[in-house]
């Protein structure tokens, strides 16, 4: 399996593993580079990037890297390495920007993980190949990609509102939106070839952008 992995994907996984391992053993390192609202709003903007290469534990790291590996191949094969990197890092930053916006009044809110970037890659993949089917944990039947895409957005919006679990739903959502927008900008032919799917995904995104401020007050 590893002999078929793209070198860029392999390097990203290795960097995530090395940074995360350092953070596992050295809390001061984790604390210095994690995403934290008050620090980012100060003069530590680098945390917007570095937090995307840190994870809280092995399960968090393995899950993110496994999903990243599973979806990255299709994106690179269709869009090329440069566009893949644009989507990966653009989604990482989009996820943290949205988390910063949504949690702007919570100075001690913090998070780590590649989930925003990975969400962007997942969305790029299902935009490029909406006919694919996905198998999720504990669900023995395949789920069409377009159903997963819409469901993921709705679940993330609900998760933000209810603050479900120790999960950065805002970063997941921002990353997914980033991957969605960047993929369409890079490959605008999708507006014609996958028109219905693009519209279906656009509706919850537009509603979120218009009414997201009201989520905390509902």
From TrEMBL:
The name this protein goes by in its record: Rhomboid family intramembrane serine protease
GO terms of biological process kind: proteolysis
Alphabetically ordered keywords of this record: Hydrolase, Membrane, Protease, Transmembrane, Transmembrane helix
Peptidase S54 rhomboid domain: residues covered: 44-186
A GO term from the CC aspect: membrane
Primary location class: membrane
Native species: Polaribacter porphyrae
Keyword Transmembrane helix: yes
UniProt keyword Protease present: yes
Transmembrane segments annotated in the record for this chain: 6-25, 74-101, 108-129, 135-158, 170-190, 196-212
Location of this chain's protein in the cell: Membrane
Molecular function in Gene Ontology: serine-type endopeptidase activity
């Amino acid at each position: 399996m590893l002999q078929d992995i793209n070198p860029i994907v392999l390097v990203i996984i290795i960097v995530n593993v090395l940074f995360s391992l350092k953070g596992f053993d050295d809390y001061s390192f984790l604390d210095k580079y994690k995403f934290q609202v008050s620090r980012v709003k100060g003069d530590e903007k680098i945390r917007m990037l570095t937090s995307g290469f840190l994870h809280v534990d092995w399960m968090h790291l393995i899950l993110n890297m496994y999903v990243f590996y599973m979806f990255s191949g299709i994106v690179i094969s269709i869009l090329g390495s440069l566009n893949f990197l644009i989507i990966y890092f653009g989604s990482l930053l989009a996820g943290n920007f949205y988390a910063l916006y949504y949690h702007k009044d919570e100075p001690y809110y913090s998070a780590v993980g590649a989930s925003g970037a990975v969400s962007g890659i997942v969305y790029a993949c299902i935009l490029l190949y909406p006919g694919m089917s996905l198998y999720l944990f504990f669900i023995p039947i395949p789920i069409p990609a377009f159903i997963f895409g819409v469901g993921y957005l709705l679940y993330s919006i609900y998760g933000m509102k209810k603050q479900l679990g120790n999960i950065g739903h805002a970063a997941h959502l921002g990353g997914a939106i980033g991957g969605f927008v960047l993929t369409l900008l890079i490959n605008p032919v999708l507006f014609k070839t996958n028109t219905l799917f693009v519209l279906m995904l656009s509706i919850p995104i537009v509603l979120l952008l218009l009414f997201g401020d009201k989520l905390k007050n509902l």
